[in-house]
């Protein structure tokens, strides 16, 4: 038998392209002194987290033993706070290393090679990686209008053997929300399909399917602390599901994977409801203002149910690179099928959005066609 010269990766991994993780952090480090970056590319919170997060972490670090011990393996205190926040029972919540780890865990626990999986298109790219790593090539469901509810399109794609349906609500990058009544309809009519609902941006829409978790054994809802809660760097997410799904997921879940600083920070963040509510309000206000400001400059701007706005322009590459020269980092989504011309801009505070428009106005003097709408 001839042996390979170097170890071979799994056949499912061999054909994957590395995940395109374009980070603006090094460009931000290289900005000239005095240029304040506007990091609006990854839909993180645009401001630091609640001061209580920093206070709790600092206090925790004051105990010299806390870093050499493992974290609270069951994330018990955090799960209790999450039960209070979500209304889901504490035993039906699992804390994960970012919500990406929750998505990966569900794929790892439920998918076999060749399974049928349907995703709403356009979608969050990393889910595709987790599915492909299990030997699954998801099929996509897209309505004619990518900004309308895709429920009918999903139902049309469902087969009796469809193992899983994944969608984010609000979706990234469209911001479209699938209301719980429609999630309920799908869960009820397809009991052997697992519906994986990614609510990473839930706080900004206020619309959730968690109320259905106790009702449907074929529903998993994931959420994150990386967006509205402001601690993307600490990597904390969670999922909520019925008893049977939880039992299966616990077989693979590594309870050591959620570090202690993440747990401490997340607990403080989730308990500061006043801070959360005021950030949501600020982002909504800033979004309405930015949509109008861009519109009055001739741009085709669309506010979403999440913490980002979309601008559809004739030359997305020009917009993204010109903004970078002004210290502004946004995300070109125009390569996604059916999404030509779209650039995604994370929303921050009203003051930050006014700063953004000031920089855009400077650029418009040099590039008058910067915001020219996409014409097909
Ligand atoms: C829809 C969606 N799900 C999940 C994530 C990942 O979140 P986390 O930082 O919790 O892994 C993102 C991040 O951009 C996202 O947009």
Outline of the structure:
This protein has 14 helices and 13 strands.
Can you describe this structure?
The protein has helices at residues 11-14, 25-29, 51-61, 76-86, 98-110, 125-132, 151-157, 180-189, 202-205, 243-252, 260-271, 273-295, 316-325, 350-366; strands at residues 38-39, 93-96, 116-120, 139-141, 162-168, 194-198, 219-224, 237-241, 300-303, 308-312, 328-329, 331-332, 342-346. By secondary structure, it is of the alpha/beta class. It has 2 domains: 11-49 and 274-366, Aspartate Aminotransferase, domain 1 (Alpha-Beta Complex); 51-271, Aspartate Aminotransferase, domain 2 (3-Layer(aba) Sandwich), CATH 3.40.640. The strands form 3 sheets. Strands 2-8-7-6-5-3-4 form a 7-stranded mixed β-sheet. Strands 9-10-13-12 form a 4-stranded antiparallel β-sheet, with helices on one face. Helix 8 links the parallel strand 5 and strand 6 (194-198). The chain is globular. The chain starts with 10 loop residues before the first helix and ends in a 10-residue tail after the last helix. The mean pLDDT is 95. It binds pyridoxal-5'-phosphate (PLP). Pyridoxal-5'-phosphate is lined by residues 43, 98-100, 124, 168, 172, 198, 200, 224, 226, 232, 237.
